[in-house]
Amino acid sequence: MPSVDNKHLPRHVQVLVAGGGPVGLAAAVELGRRDVDCLVVEPRAAVSHARPRCKTLNVRTMEHLRRWGLAERLRERAPLPASWSQDVVFCTSLTGRELSRFTGVLGLAPDGDRFPETGQQAPQYVLEEVLREAVEEIAPGRLVLGSKVVGVRQDDDLVSVTLEDGAGQRTVVTADYVIGCDGPRSVVRDEIGARYVGGEALRPNFGMVFRSPGLWEHVTHGPAVQYWVVNATAPALVGPLDRTDTWWAIGFGVDRETGEREARRIIDGLAGRPVEAKVLSTDPWTARMQIVDRMRDGRVFLAGDAAHLNPPFGGHGLNTGIGDAVDLGWKLAAVLAGWGGPEVLDSYESERRPVQERVIREATANMRVLSTELLADNLDADDEAGAKARWAAGARIQETKKAEFHSLDLVLGLRVAASPIVPAEPEGAAGSAWTGARLPHLFLEGGRSLYDLLDADLTLLALGQDASVTAVEEAARLRGVPLTVVRLPEPVAAAYAEVLGARLVLVRPDQVVAWLGDEAPGDALALVDTLSGGSAARST
């Protein structure tokens, strides 16, 4: 997918993606790997290193990167290896007293068979650069830099999109579908008449990136991915961007004017001593808890920050957007390939909205206790009063912040509760607990991941040599739905069937369990029709 300028734009593409941040690029990778002709339009000519807002790539995002063949490339570029630290520290300052500590945070530590990829700390710009490279390596489609979407109009058959380059030159490109990944100020959202619903926090926050040579020499708590600083001078959150001298920080309750004026004081306050430092960039912000009233209008869809916003605590925002991109990407590809019907696209909002709403709730709950809420007298005192104050603070931290850093149940446990393309299972039916959930992971002989065996489209797992797949295979063939059968060997198959409560498992392209059973259903055609969302092939 080479980069092009406005003079060499195609007249028509299958999918146009407005916005080439991580979510838009992820959508392009998902589409491009499925041979969809895709155009990504991004105003920034180069990836910005100034404000790396996202630092946490969770386990689920890393599983998608693995599926795309990009996980190792990203880890090689990340300044902080996952093995370097898996801790979050609460302290009075980087040189002060430790109040509490969480270990094995954010999915950074392996956990047996639970997942094939640990989480990864990486600045957002590292992810963007890796995804840009991947997009440019994929043959179908193009990446347009230095241009933006300024208008969207659609009819029953096409979407007409107006692009404007840096010189003000406008060009119209038509597309079968458009994905708006153009952030909080989304033009695409405005053009389809969607709007955010929800609220925002009252307290301002001041983000910044700074360089401080030698600061590591004074840190008394060892390596950590986050340090929550609890003192009255600079209640803040700070962490390293690399292992040398670059740091990010958030001053809680600090407005733009104060932050710009007192950035150096804040840095000294969180360090616990005067340090050499240079502010590289600033980013004042206020938390928003908002979601659009609708994520689709005809052939136009919204994803990522264009569709939903949440506080950053827990690191869920960008990762939720990547989930949007994956979900919409494979579904659009299925429809464009002819085997996906209208209900496949209808399922995008019905499946993603509950996920996005839960993430907003969880992130909002994480925001209730920040460094400012943990302030107390005597936290740095050497006497008995200090010991008691630190014990009380530590107990409160463990009680109120654990869910923020140990959230794998949220990351991996999100389930499609209601969808037109997931058959409803009677309560208590064999395998019903797994329908709509992420397929449980399993390492096979030699350390290979079960996920590596799954096909890009539908996969039918047969757990045992006597598990008959003929009826489902034939139904898929008749409907023109791509299906790959994977038969696990014994004794792995029997043990895995015991876990799932079934010997046949249909898995979607996004590794979600679509159906389970010990044998093919009586009407295998009806099952395939549901999974394919009412495709045109149903008439055969």
Describe the structure.
The longest helix is centred in the middle third of the chain and has 25 residues, at about 340-365. Helix 1 runs parallel beside helix 7, helix 7 (about 315-335) packs antiparallel against helix 8 (about 340-365) and helix 11 packs across helix 13 (about 525-530). Strand 10 and strand 11 (about 170-180) form a beta hairpin. By secondary structure, the chain is of the alpha/beta class. The strands form five sheets. Strands 1, 2, 3, 8, 9, 10, 11, 19 and 20 form a nine-stranded mixed β-sheet that branches. It has a seven-stranded mixed β-sheet with strand order 6-5-14-15-16-13-17. The protein is built from 13 helices and 25 strands. The protein has helices at about 20-30, 60-65, 70-75, 125-135, 185-190, 255-270, 315-335, 340-365, 385-405, 410-415, 470-480, 490-500, 525-530; strands at about 5, 10-20, 40, 55, 85-90, 100-105, 120, 140-145, 145-155, 160-165, 170-180, 195-200, 205-210, 225-230, 235-240, 245-250, 280-285, 290, 295, 300, 310, 460-465, 485-490, 505, 515.
Number of DSSP strand runs:
25
Shape: globular
Q: Give me the secondary-structure category.
A: alpha/beta
How many DSSP H or I helices?
A: 13
